[in-house]
Model the fold of this input.
Amino acid sequence: MIASHTLGRILLALATAAAAIYASAGRADGPKATIEKQFTAAAGGPHRPNIVWIMCDQLRSDCLGANGNSIIKTPHLDRLAQQSANFTQAFVQAPVCVPSRASFFTGRYPHSHRNRVNYTPLPAGEVLLPARLQAAGYCTALVGKTHLYYRYPPTADEARRTGFELVDLHDGVPFTDEWSEYAQWRQAHDPLRDIPYRRLAHQVPGLRASLRADGNPNRAAIDQQYTDTTWTGMRARERLKELAAGDRPFFLFCSFWKPHSPYEVPAPFDSMYDQVEIPLPPAETLESIGRLPPPVQKLILRGKKPEYAMDRRRLEWLYRSYYGTVSHLDREVGLILDALKDLGALENTIVVFTSDHGDQLLEHGLLGKNVFFEASIHVPLLIGFPGRIRPGRCDELVESIDVLPTLLALAGLAEPENCQGRSLAALCDGSGRPAPPRDAVFSENVIPEVITDGGLDFAFAKGQGVKGVRHPDAKMVRTRRWKYNYYPDGYAELYDLEHDPHEQHNLAADPAQKPVVDEMQRRLLNWLITADEVDQIAPRWLIPRH
Ligand SMILES: [Ca+2]
Done:
């Protein structure tokens, strides 16, 4: 038994050591207070660059001209790509909106920030990028979709609680229209205000007569000038004028809802690809789908009318519509870049362009996302900053959690202690400083839609999942050559991306690939064990400094 005075001495020694570590790191308060103090102190620092982050929803990496697509017309994004570091191998941490967006804005993996499923709340302790920039003296503005809230309903006040000072909210789905600035604006301006904004022209009796029989069946009912894409661009340019006239650095998050499905597209973009042949993915069969892990099969075959056997003519128009929507978005990006230039703000503004995930566009029989195939997890990522970032392609593997520390580094601000991303600044600022590349990227996916058929009924029984089916909570690790997806209950996928870039041949059960499977499992296990060390080890001593 240790004598009480000895125990006291040990405790004192431990406390002193802890205090020394604490003091050397300059951390005297809890994590959130410390972060705020650091940023408040930084607010009086040198003039900081503005940040314009242009976000879109469901845009694939390969649907930019700058990324090698010779069919799609994206001249303005190509211009931005020429002026930016173009991260050609950027991957999201979740192939669905809310977890992915939470990762972008926290710099943390989904299992760490714990916002795993759409329309679930952000944990109260998670501090988002706009709040960090606001604390550093930035004027922060949101135009469009955020999809991140600490509580329901998704109002402008709730968006302000995430760190946005100026809010023009539009989350883009009918059940959030009650709180949508765009929906209100359209009601005040659009002569066709009674027609829902996602409605197709051929669904509206009064518009059918004006349609060409051989025209795009996905033509939107409403005029392009009243779409949420045009509104988001217009409102962003108006905000930019206000922000550029202010005396604070600004952060504008300009967040487009498109090219998210449904694939309605307004004129004239509906006919832009009329005569164009776009390569389509191979048709899938029940047999080919049956070779996928059960959660992925369920996702593809969900609903009363699974889409995997879609008519090829319809699929052709779907591609033309998606491309037309991207070209519409591209026009708006061009107008935003022009506005920045006209305001004289381009030189001191970091411009980011990316997406929260991609779209399968019927690859592997699926529309939308929620899977680890390249079409869903591989996104465009452009980061431009005149004079600081060297324009050009960067083919290193990067993760979406890397964007937050990159922006903070470029703005001269400290990285949060719990950030799991790595700043990309050294990869693209021409400084020649070493930037250890990632040799693997990770993604995570809970797939509630598998169980609920796309509904929002998330009634959950512990140990039984939803409606008696356990949540398929899957993990992915991807190196340059290999992708390994792990599902609970013994299912897995292994793809050799070098020889099988379209992920057609699952090698997980191939005895010849057992060493690769073992190596990928080791990578997953190491990542799961170590990713949270930033929360649990780094700065969390509870013993006071003095
Ligand atoms: Ca999304």
About this structure: The longest helix spans residues 312-342. Confidence is low (pLDDT under 50) at residues 1-46. The two ends are 29 Å apart (CA to CA).
